[in-house]
Design goal:
The protein is an alpha/beta fold and about 375 residues long. It folds into 2 domains: about 200 residues, Rossmann fold (3-Layer(aba) Sandwich); about 160 residues, Glycogen Phosphorylase B (Rossmann fold, 3-Layer(aba) Sandwich), CATH 3.40.50. The protein is built from 17 helices and 11 strands. It has a 6-stranded parallel sheet with strand order 2-1-3-4-5-6, sandwiched between helices. Helix 3 packs across helix 17, helix 10 crosses helix 15 and helix 13 packs across helix 16. The two termini are about 10 Å apart. The mean pLDDT is about 95.
């Protein structure tokens, strides 16, 4: 069975990659995508690699990675490549391609690969007219979402939508689309590339945009109480006197991100309330524990189903509660180590992408049949 994973990527990260590829004069498709994979950014090749070991033929398409898509069309559709160059001379089209990718190249890839399943991890980037066309060239069109909802009609052409948030599963079913609960995970092989020096006492890695305003308020409070080192994106949304900026180190992508987590005694996360509601689901749950940091996360109704609270992760109920727990575990290193190690063992046992792809295979087979 052949499956195509379709995703997009943060533009800032792609800008960095494009610059490095230009400096190293890398233009070949296979070399470009392997260079991209080497960073282990986001979900990288974690889905395709792990599901391939279960008997699938799997490939990835990064729709807004212009250099990669150009390399594909140069090799497989030269006339389409010429047309794309012409279209890119139109500023509006060029801007759309940078954000959402080139739909002409995407459709050419799908038609060439003839996949049994198309698995879309960027539902908001593919408008309904495009998913309608994609559906004509595959037997099962699957999407995955755990972010702010696009309009309901963006879901209409899918056979199945997966989400790591139970509230989203319920909402998707209400609008008449089949949906299943499917958690995010951790890629254990990144541990082969990192070292554990524990040079940071407390860290936070993530976004600081308007949608993160509640978490930003908590982080502001904590940063006034203790030293916290910060990395991420969206700091232009913070007040100029925010204490977050005092120890802000810029963005951290891929293996840089994992190395910082591995170097952290404690790392903080918090969910976006308007998206997650009363449920825990974000990637930091698995990445922080997987890298061996003590994770402190906001309490959620289903957190205890994912980790044992107090023994594998620490949950907080307020900024004051979080501050007190940080102070306690920095003073009690043996307890911190014990919980961090237990959290890591739990993630490596139950929450790896290897385990997730076993779950995904079962779901896909259910709906494919």
């Amino acid at each position: 069975m052949k499956i195509l994973f379709i995703d997009n990527c943060y533009p800032d990260f792609l800008t960095k990659i494009e610059r490095e590829l230009t400096e190293q004069k890398i233009f070949d498709y296979d070399k470009i995508i392997n260079y991209y994979y080497s960073y282990s950014f986001g979900t990288s090749d974690f889905y395709s690699k792990n599901i391939s070991s279960l008997g699938f033929e799997a490939k990835d398409i990064i729709i807004n990675f212009d250099r990669l898509q150009v390399a594909w069309s140069m090799k497989n559709a030269p006339l389409l490549n010429i047309l794309t160059k012409i279209l890119k001379t139109i500023p509006t089209v060029r801007n759309v391609y940078q954000l959402l990718g080139n739909p002409l190249v995407l459709m050419a890839q799908i038609k060439k690969e003839k996949p049994d399943i198309v698995y879309v991890q960027c539902i908001g980037s593919l408008p309904p007219f495009l998913t309608k066309q994609i559906k004509k060239h595959t037997k099962l069109l699957v999407g995955q979402i755990a972010s702010k909802f696009p309009p309901d009609n963006f879901f209409s052409n899918y056979d199945l939508i997966l989400s790591s948030l139970p509230n989203m599963v319920e909402k998707i079913r209400i609008i008449g689309v089949k949906s299943e609960y499917f958690k995010i995970g951790f890629e254990s092989t990144v541990l082969n590339k990192i070292k554990h020096n524990k040079k940071y006492e407390v860290t936070h890695l993530g976004g600081y945009g308007k949608i993160h305003r509640e978490r930003n308020q908590i982080l502001d409070y904590i940063a006034r109480k203790t030293r916290v080192d910060f990395w991420g994106y969206g700091i232009s949304n913070l007040l100029t006197n925010s204490p977050i900026l005092k120890h802000f180190h810029g963005e951290a992508w891929g293996m840089d991100y994992y190395n910082i987590l591995a170097d952290s005694k404690i790392t903080i996360t918090g969910h976006i309330k308007e998206v997650a509601g009363k449920y825990a689901n974000n990637m930091t749950l698995y990445e922080a524990t997987g890298c061996g940091a003590l994770l402190m996360t906001d309490y959620k109704e289903n957190l205890g189903d994912i980790f044992e609270i107090g023994k594998e992760v620490i949950a907080y109920s307020s900024p004051e509660d979080l501050s007190n727990k940080i102070e306690y575990y920095l003073k009690h290193e043996d307890e911190r180590k014990t919980i961090a190690l237990a959290g890591q063992k739990r993630t490596l046992r139950d929450h790896t992408y290897k385990e997730r792809m076993i779950e995904l295979k079962q779901i896909l087979q259910k709906y494919y049949e």
